[in-house]
Specification:
55 residues, mainly alpha
Length: 55
């Protein structure tokens, strides 16, 4: 998602992100660890304003 946001700032075209359907297979990995709230991280400065489900 962050890559899509950064790319969208550079292009004059819509950019899309495709997410997996669930996170069950990642619950036992580092991806489910507590989030670091360091404000220097780009991910902690992004607010999701909306989304669109496409089928």
């Amino acid at each position: 998602m962050i890559g899509t946001i950064l790319l969208n700032e550079e292009l004059d075209k819509p950019v899309a992100t495709v997410f997996a359907d669930d996170n069950k297979k990642y619950l036992s990995t580092d991806l489910s660890k507590e989030i670091d709230n360091n404000h220097e991280f780009i991910s902690n400065n992004i607010k999701l304003k909306g989304y669109e489900v496409m089928k």
